[in-house]
Structure to design on (336 residues):
């Protein structure tokens, strides 16, 4: 039976000093591809978001909402637009897993073509520029003030990512696909020189941001569970990997490829460079790595579908398309 918040959770909320007025209603929220989200509404109509790890057996380092609480607390200390953490519960008498209570932030979610179509083209362009500028702000977070200087090892982020995702491929692949390992070998030979790490979001893209309805500015950035210290270009590469544009091969369900008003990937990179003042010399590597990772993530989805006997049409084509984009990005960076 699926877990639902009960009386023990409500008692914990009432003890946080937030003025929660019972009775309290909990509604399961869509989104949050891994952690479970509940919209909390009290008798006065005030709202919060309750976050917890997914059900089932978890890896030791996965879905760590205690770590996420630390990150969000640091972001609140520097005034970054992320949901403020309001409570953390690790009492197993309340829930079998840690619970994280967050402020509820109103905003527009561009989670598909219909949501994008509902906004005028000028708004879409402004939102895209704000998305790039806010990523530059992530990378400018003062780690000392935020208390996050020791968040992760100060080693090569590229090496760490390649090791992790090679293991992921080995664990989830459904077939032999030599181009995955061949591309990994090429990436390993091209790992950029170590740079002093900054805060990186780890999963920064259109669907993990809420925008202000009136002008497209970023209202808040969501889903910080993969946040770490690393090379800022990794986040830029990931943003581009999740930013398909007209003319890309394979299925493109993302609104950036289907709805007018969104700039292309080159313009998004330029917007980030203008906001950050950074040189993007190594971006081809990081974009290729990110596309390769997306292909492995999609292979993991395919593995679960195959195991369940329900395969989504076009899934393999999406994987092939991402691998092709990864190869082309690396070729372009090498002058090929």
């Amino acid at each position: 039976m699926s877990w639902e918040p009960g009386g023990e959770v409500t008692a914990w909320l009432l003890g946080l000093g937030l003025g929660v007025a019972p009775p309290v209603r909990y509604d399961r929220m869509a989104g949050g591809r891994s952690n479970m989200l509940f919209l909390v509404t009290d008798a006065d109509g005030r709202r919060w978001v309750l976050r917890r790890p997914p059900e089932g057996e978890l890896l030791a380092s996965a879905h760590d909402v205690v770590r996420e609480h630390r990150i969000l607390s640091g972001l609140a200390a520097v005034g970054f637009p992320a949901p403020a953490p309001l409570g953390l519960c690790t009492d197993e008498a309340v829930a079998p897993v840690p619970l994280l209570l967050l402020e509820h932030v109103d905003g527009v979610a561009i989670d598909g073509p219909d949501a994008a179509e509902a906004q005028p083209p000028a708004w879409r362009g402004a939102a895209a520029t704000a998305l790039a500028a806010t990523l530059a702000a992530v990378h400018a977070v003062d780690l000392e003030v935020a208390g996050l200087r020791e968040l992760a090892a100060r080693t090569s982020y590229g090496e760490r990512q390649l090791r992790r995702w090679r293991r992921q491929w080995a664990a989830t692949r459904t077939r032999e696909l030599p181009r995955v390992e061949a591309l990994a070998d090429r990436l390993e030979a091209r790992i950029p020189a170590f740079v002093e790490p900054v805060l990186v979001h780890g999963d920064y893209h259109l669907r993990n941001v809420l925008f202000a309805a009136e002008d497209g500015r970023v209202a808040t950035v969501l889903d910080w569970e993969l946040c770490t210290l690393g090379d800022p270009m990794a986040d830029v590469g990931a943003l581009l990997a999740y930013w398909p544009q007209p003319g890309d091969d394979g299925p493109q369900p993302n609104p950036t490829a289907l709805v007018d008003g969104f700039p292309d990937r080159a313009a998004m990179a330029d917007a980030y460079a203008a906001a950050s003042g950074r040189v993007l010399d190594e971006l081809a590597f990081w974009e290729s790595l990110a596309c390769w990772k997306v292909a492995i993530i999609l292979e993991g989805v395919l593995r679960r579908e195959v195991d369940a006997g329900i395969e989504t049409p076009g899934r393999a084509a999406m994987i092939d398309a991402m691998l092709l984009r990864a190869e082309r990005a690396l070729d372009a960076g090498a002058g090929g």
